[in-house]
Amino acid sequence: MATPLAAGLAVAAAALAGRYGIQAWQAFKASPPRLRKFYEGGFQPTMTRREAALILGIRESTPADKVKEAHRKVMVANHPDAGGSHYLASKINEAKDVMLGKTRGSESAF
Known about the structure:
By secondary structure, the protein is mainly alpha-helical. It is 61% helix and 0% strand.
């Protein structure tokens, strides 16, 4: 007598778990893709290492060779000869200089 009752409860639990799993999967598929959160805000008057790292998409403690590599990637996408902005190009170059310790920032031509 207890065996059919236990089997019925097990089938009901499996059905409810399957239903919940299907609903969760459909909700996951329907949700919009999560986009990377970018820095919101303008440029600071004097560029800091934090802002320079955000512009180049690297960490503040990144070694010099990785800074140059990141600068190249960002500059290829924003170069004025390829339709990019002169202002953004100057900020990208300034960010590289700040990260490499060549300047103290705020030496943009704009």
